[in-house]
Specification:
Elements lengths: L1 E8 L4 H9 L4 E6 L6 E6 L3 H12 L5 E8 L3
Antiparallel strand pairs: 1-3, 1-4, 2-3
Amino acid sequence: MLAYILIGILECDEQQCLDSILSYKEVVEAHILFGEWDIVAKIEVDNPEDAGTFVMENIRSLPDVKITSTLIVAK
């Protein structure tokens, strides 16, 4: 299943944070954004529970991440 993660980061090196996110095998692609959110990441996992676990254990644990919002693709 696919999901998009909107990521808000603290003031830091955005490229370094993006590179950290891209290092996970679950991340299909990720980009730096303009606007309310700083980074968007597209992930592919088996189920919604795996998406939650991935976000909690890998994305939210990054020191520069302050907030996330996960959008699970319906179709």
